[in-house]
From TrEMBL:
BP terms from Gene Ontology: glycogen biosynthetic process
Residue span(s) of domain Maltokinase N-terminal cap: 26-117
Protein's recorded name: Maltokinase
Pathway(s) where this gene product acts: Glycan biosynthesis; glycogen biosynthesis
Length: 458
């Protein structure tokens, strides 16, 4: 694989060879590393771009690295790394340590995850500000949006699928970790919403992209930081702990989701789904259930009940029912909703479910899919509370759907078969997600699975 310009030179390749043993141990420990549980057997450098020349007090490499983990999928996932190089690491950067290099051009140096370090993170912002091109890296900025120089960087502490750096409470840069070719919905949809003037999504200010083998890759997106915001998950848990009514917020979230859906339907094509599209949609849900039962045998007793949700949808399809599909968020939950101190809600993270193939994430889908994601999230919050609060989830569910209907004129509860199918599909996804990433949380989606299998969303 060759980058747009030749970034992998013999010297950068040797640099990477000397880092390989350190990366092999470090990568699998990162939350965003998608290949957990299988050993890393090798790396192929895809592009190595020095952003700060090594040799000074501080070096910075931008690296795209293909990670091999046989017998899994070939040729392996591609990851984006920003590697800092220093003679010694100050104690404040200890959590970022990757290791000490003992051979090759960097021998005697310490390498670390540079996003923890303000100075290299500021190099990225400056490159976006000045719309730099370095090797194959293209730093682009919406010319109508300014970036003030000298904003101080700090890495966001949250454990997440990617890494985000906040600059002076003004911007947040999401640095994608596992990068995939093609148009990235996390840039595409917010740009489309900004064109529509939709205020519910922070408008992208700048982004980093590259091209490999003629395919575009989005590597990072900069957007305004919603300062002082709390996310919906924190607020819901806080409200539950204090016994507060969350229904007004759930209604506001229903309205915000509906505003985003309405703007997306204006900005991008919508399609009518007939039997030719709905058959495969139902088939996909059925297949995901079968795969999930294989992966998590605790699902087995509920398989038949869960499948009945898809059979019921299949019957409506066979009877000639059609639905309108449009671009949607794809992984909407309370943690993707931010409430500003003004009380306004924003939706973030339009990447879709990380486990789905990229092309599938960009397909138009029934908007009820996002509604189902939010309803599942109210249930998650209610079941994580002590004691569990099913009535709270029930009230949020009603308020969210009413808020949604106020904007679109369509109450998702009037389409119960499609809604149950999507809630079931989401709960099945969550069972697999939790089994892989957070086994302690598995009882939460499993309790929903029990209810959904018995045809009761609450
Ligand atoms: N525009 C923003 N303003 C304030 N905080 C944000 C913004 N965008 C993201 N965040 C914070 O960053 C976290 C991670 O962002 P997200 O896009 O969900 O990344 P990931 O894909 O890694 O989960 C969010 O949970 C939120 O706390
Ligand atoms: O935020 P991500 O895009 O990384 O989404 C993944 O992780 C989420 C958890 O962080 C997971 O969401 C599930 O847990 C949430 C509570 O932590 C809950 O609000 C959601 O409803 C539930 O789905 C999400 O599914 C996964 O894709």
């Amino acid at each position: 694989m060759t980058p747009m310009t030749e970034a992998v030179t013999p010297s950068t390749s040797t640099t990477l060879d000397s880092l390989a043993p350190l990366l092999r141990a470090w990568l699998p420990r990162q939350r965003w590393f998608a290949g957990k549980g299988r050993p890393v057997t090798g790396f192929t450098p895809v592009a190595v771009t020095p952003l700060l020349p090594p040799g000074g007090r501080l070096g910075l490499y931008h690296i795209l690295l293909r990670v091999h983990q046989p017998p899994g999928r070939q040729p392996g996932h591609c990851y984006q790394l920003l590697i800092g190089v220093r003679e010694a690491l100050p104690p404040r950067l200890a959590p970022a340590l990757i290791g000490h290099v003992d051979s090759g051009p960097l021998a005697g140096h310490t390498v670390y995850d540079a996003l923890h370090d303000p100075r290299p993170a500021e190099v990225l912002l400056e490159a976006l500000r000045s719309r730099a091109r370095v090797g194959g890296l293209v730093f682009e900025r919406d010319p109508r949006r300014e970036i003030r120089p000298n904003l101080v960087a700090r890495l966001l502490a949250a454990e997440q699928s990617n890494s985000s750096v906040v600059y002076g409470d003004t911007f947040i840069l999401k640095v994608l970790r596992r990068v995939v070719p093609g148009i990235n919905p996390d840039l595409e949809l917010p740009l489309a919403l900004a064109r529509e003037g939709c205020p519910r999504v922070p408008a992208p200010t700048a982004w980093l992209r590259t091209e490999l083998d003629g395919e575009p890759y989005v590597l990072a997106v900069l957007q305004p930081f919603v300062s002082g915001a709390a996310d919906g998950w924190e607020l819901a848990l806080r409200g539950l702990a204090k016994g507060e009514d969350f229904a007004p917020e759930a209604r506001a979230l229903g309205r915000a989701t509906a505003e985003v859906h309405t703007a997306l339907a204006r900005a991008l094509p919508t399609v009518t789904l007939g039997p030719a599209q709905l058959g495969p949609l139902v088939q996909g849900m059925t297949e995901r259930l079968a795969a999930a039962v294989q992966a998590v045998p605790a699902l087995l007793p509920y398989e038949e009940g869960l499948r009945s949700a898809y059979t019921a949808l299949g019957e409506l399809v066979a009877g000639g029912r059609t639905w309108t599909a449009q671009r949607v968020h794809g992984d909407l939950h309370l943690g993707q909703c931010l409430r500003a101190p003004s009380g306004d809600w924003s939706l973030i993270d339009f990447e879709g479910e990380p486990a789905r193939p990229p092309a599938e994430r960009r397909l138009p889908q029934p908007p009820v899919r996002d509604v189902a994601g939010m309803l599942r999230s109210f249930d998650y919050a209610a079941r994580s509370a002590s004691p569990p609060a099913p009535r709270w989830a029930h009230d949020c569910r009603a308020a969210f759907c009413s808020g949604y209907a106020e904007v679109t004129g369509h109450d998702p509860r009037t389409d119960p078969v499609m809604l149950r199918a999507y809630e079931t599909d989401k709960a099945v996804y969550e069972v697999v997600y939790e089994a892989r990433h957070r086994p302690d949380w598995l009882p939460v989606p499993l309790s929903a699975v029990r209810r959904l299998a018995a045809s009761d969303p609450n």
